[in-house]
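Deliverable D2.4 — example input (structure tokens):
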């Protein structure tokens, strides 16, 4: 194991009160593992297998970080989102002019992930508008230019309102601080931590 990875794992477990048995902590560790992969930012449409389909490991966008981290823990968002959309299509955002599901891409869209997590009761409602983050929280933002974005909290500061996340914002999966300039649009714990 690389020395940097050891430091990051130490930070993960020492900065959060969660234990190794906590799903959120395991999801955060799976997200952190994604930072060891070389990934070229590539969001083009591709046909993929179903179930368990994925684009090539060396390609991806922000949603692929979330999908791949969940898959490491045995949760296939491709299947879960597709099945929910197939029976509740009108509950999902009509942003792409589609009239039916597309199991190649639906799970790879931030607004669809948000709708799915909210439908599963995973949306965290901040107290008095102040979010409190936990390891494993899936966060969504609206970036400048109206671009939806997502990532997974891997460490939290002692004040629990700031955090470090793993996300792909163009240069592959990276561990960064949350930018204060991003507009938070969602916080989810799925399944509940």
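Example output (designed residues):
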């Amino acid at each position: 194991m690389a020395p940097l990875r050891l430091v990051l794992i130490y930070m993960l477990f020492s900065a959060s009160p969660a234990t190794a048995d906590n799903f959120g902590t395991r999801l955060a560790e799976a997200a952190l593992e994604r930072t060891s992969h070389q990934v070229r930012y590539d969001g083009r449409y591709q046909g993929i297998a179903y179930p368990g389909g994925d684009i090539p490991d060396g390609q991806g966008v922000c949603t692929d970080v979330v999908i791949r981290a969940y898959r490491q823990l045995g949760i296939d968002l491709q299947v879960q989102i597709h099945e929910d959309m197939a029976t509740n299509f009108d509950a999902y955002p009509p942003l792409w002019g589609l009239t039916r599901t597309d199991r190649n891409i639906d799970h790879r869209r931030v607004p669809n992930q948000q709708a799915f997590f909210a439908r599963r009761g995973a949306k965290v409602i901040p107290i008095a508008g102040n979010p409190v983050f936990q390891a494993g929280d899936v966060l969504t933002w609206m970036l400048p230019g109206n671009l939806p974005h997502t990532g997974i909290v891997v460490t939290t500061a002692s004040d629990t309102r700031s955090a470090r996340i793993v996300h792909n914002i163009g240069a592959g999966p990276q561990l960064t601080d949350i930018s204060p300039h991003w507009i938070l649009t969602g916080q989810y714990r799925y399944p509940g931590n």
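The first helix runs from residue 3 to 15.
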